Amino acid sequence: MRCTLPLAFRQFWLNWVLRLNARCDRRNWASCFLKLLSGATKLPSLKVAKRAIPISIPTGPAALGTGCSTSRTVWMLAYHRASCMTENLRSDLVPKTLEPVRPLLLTEMFDARRRIAKSVVRTPLVRLDLGPGFPDIHLKLENLQPTNSYKLRGAVNAVAMLSESERQLGVWTISAGNAGQGVAYAARQAGVPCTVVAIETAPASKLERMRALGATLITVPYEAAWRALGDRAYQGVEGTFVHPFDDHNFIAGHSTMGFEILEDAPGTVAVICAIGGGGLVTGIASALKALKPEIKIWGAEPETAAPAALSFSMGSAQVFKDWKASFVDGAGGQSLFPRMWERIRPVVDGSIVVSLEQTKAAMRLMAEKVRVIAEGAGALALAAALTGKAGQGPIVAVVSGGNVDLAKFCDLIVPESK
Question: Which of 167, 202, 217, 349 has its CA at a distance of 20 to 30 angstroms from the CA of residue 2?
Answer without folding.
Answer: 167
